[in-house]
C-alpha cells in the first residue's frame, strides 16, 4: 500500500517526537568515538610498539613523547573514548526503552477504548489478541527509528571510509560480498515476513476456534446429536496442522537466511587477509594499518546485520500497524 511506511513513521514521530531528540543526540555522540576507536590502535602499533631500531614515539604540540609515555597516553585515550562511547550507548538504550513503552501504551489504550464499545465477546477477544500480539513490534521499531540508522549506519560508513583511507583495495575486499547480500538476503527476508504474518493469522484463527469450542457448556454439548462437535474438532485439527506447516516453513527460511548471511560474512575475511597480507608483504601497507583495518572490518559485519534487521522490523511493524489501523477503522480512521 503506497505511503504505508511513512504513515507509520509519521505516527511514531507524532507520538514520541520529543523523546526522539535526546536519542538522536546520544546516537550522534557515538560516531566520533567509532573513528577514534579505529585510529588509536593503529598509532599504538606503528609508533608506540615500533621496533627499537626505528624512530619510535610521536610529537604533540612541540613535545616529543617517548614510546613508553606515548603508549600510556594512547591507551588512556582509548579507554576514555571507549568509556564515553559506552555511556552514550547506555543513555541511548534507556531512551529507546522509554520510546518503546510510550508507543505500546498509546496503542493499547486506543485498543482498550475501542474494546469497551464492543458488545460481542468474539470481537473483544480479537481486539485483545491485537493488543497483545501486534503492538510490541511497532513499539520496538519506533524506538529503533533513529538509533539504528545513526549508530549502526554511521558506524558502517565510518568503517568503510576508514578502510578507504588505509587502502582502497582493503575497502573493496571488505565490501566484495555486499552485492550478493543485498541481492539475495532481502528476497529471503520478504518471504520470511510473509510467512510470519501467515503464522500470526493462523495462530489467531486457532485461538478463535478454541475459544468458540470452550464457550459451549458441558450440558449443552451432551444434548448435541449432530456432527457439530466433531466438525469443530476437525477444524481445530486442520488449523493446528496449518500452523505446524507454517512454522516449519519459517524455520527453514530462517535457516537459509542465517546460513547465507554467515557464509557470505565469513567468506569476506578470505579476500581481506589475502589482499591485506599481500600489501603488507610488499610493504605497501603498514602492519598497524592492517590491524586497524581488521578492527574496522569487525565493525562492518554487525552493522550490516543490524541494518538488515532494521529493514525486517520496519516491514513487520508496517504490516502490524496496518492491522491495528484496520481493527480501529470503524471508530478511528487515523491513529494519533
Give, in spatial order, the strands making up the sheet with the most strands: 1-2
Shape: elongated
| Low-pLDDT segments | 215-228
Cα-based radius of gyration, to the nearest Å: 27 Å
DSSP summary: helix tally: 10
Topology as a string of helices (H) and strands (E): HEEHHHHHHHHH
Q: How many structural domains can be distinguished in the coordinates?
A: 2
Q: Estimate the mean pLDDT confidence.
A: 78
Beta content: under 5%
Class from helix and strand fractions: mainly alpha
Q: Number of DSSP strands?
A: 2
Largest sheet: 2 strands, antiparallel
Assign a percent range to the helix content: over 70%
Spatial gap, N to C terminus: 20 Å
Report on the architecture of this protein.
By secondary structure, this protein is mainly alpha-helical. It has two domains: 4-167 and 285-327, no CATH class; 181-268. Helix content is 84%, strand content 2%. The chain has ten helices and two strands; from the N terminus they run H-E-E-H-H-H-H-H-H-H-H-H. It has helices at residues 4-48, 67-116, 121-133, 135-144, 147-166, 168-174, 178-214, 218-223, 228-281, 287-327, and strands at residues 58-60, 63-65. The protein has a two-stranded antiparallel sheet with strand order 1-2. Strand 1 and strand 2 form a beta hairpin. Helix 1 (4-48) packs antiparallel against helix 10, helix 2 (67-116) runs antiparallel to helix 4 (135-144) and helix 7 (178-214) runs antiparallel to helix 9. The longest helix has 54 residues, at 228-281. The relative contact order is 0.14. Mean pLDDT is 78; it is low at 215-228.
